[in-house]
Amino acid sequence: MMKKSLFACLLSSALVVGCGNTSEADTEGCEHLKEGPSAPVTASATASGAPAVSNDHKRYDISLPAGTGGNTGSVSFQVGEAAHYVFFLGSDVNLGITSTSGSSSVSFESSAKDSEACSEIKGRYVAELQVGAYTLTFGPTSQTSVSLVIEEEGEEHEHEH
């Protein structure tokens, strides 16, 4: 696996100057969007009582309830470590993040509708999050579900001690 991601990193660095943590996160995001493991979740129509998702190397297959103007729903995400997080979506669905404590909207550092790493990524959002609770809101959309993978940017996946 390490050789494959190193090769992808070298290949992409020939096309783009440098090869940072983003491509490693993208490689992980692709892998989990394609292969799982998956966990089914039904989003809540409101922020209160939203089911939890995590950056635990799973693909969350989130069912979106019908809402005003389309299907929309929320899930909660507890951040244990302040870092940059990458949210990968398997469908072109709008994503909004708000802090539960301050109810303030989180600005994305970057967002894209694709990734060079694989065609499964239909949404890629990067945000710097502090320790605390957040609500992720999807939609409104015509889609009835969306797949979500959350990766911490720069996180080491193979620890050698």
Give a brief description:
The chain is built from 2 helices and 11 strands, in the order H-H-E-E-E-E-E-E-E-E-E-E-E. With 161 residues, it is of the alpha+beta class. The chain has a single domain, classed as Sandwich (Jelly Rolls).
Question: What does this protein structure show overall?
Answer:
- The model is unreliable at 1-21 and 157-161 (pLDDT under 50).
- This protein has two helices and eleven strands; from the N terminus they run H-H-E-E-E-E-E-E-E-E-E-E-E.
- By secondary structure, the chain is of the alpha+beta class.
- The protein has a single domain (2-152), classed as Sandwich (Jelly Rolls), CATH 2.60.120.380.
- Helix content is 18%, strand content 40%.
- It has helices at 2-15, 21-35, and strands at 38-42, 52-53, 59-63, 66-67, 70-79, 83-89, 95-99, 110-112, 123-129, 132-141, 145-152.
- It has a six-stranded mixed beta sheet with strand order 1-3-11-6-9-8, with helices on one face.
- Strand 4 and strand 5 (70-79) form a beta hairpin.
Would you state the CATH class? Answer: Mainly Beta
The unreliable regions are 1-21, 157-161
The tally of structural domains comes to 1
Q: Report helical residue fraction.
A: 10-25%
| String of helices and strands | HHEEEEEEEEEEE
Biggest sheet architecture? 6 strands, mixed
Residue fraction in strands = 35-45%
Morphology: globular
Say how many strands there are: 11
Number of helices: 2
| Span of the ends, CA to CA | 19 Å
The strand line-up of the biggest sheet is 1-3-11-6-9-8
> Structural class given helices, strands, pairing?
alpha+beta
The CATH topology label is: Jelly Rolls
Q: Mean pLDDT across all residues, rounded?
A: 84
Give Rg in angstroms: 16 Å
CATH architecture: Sandwich
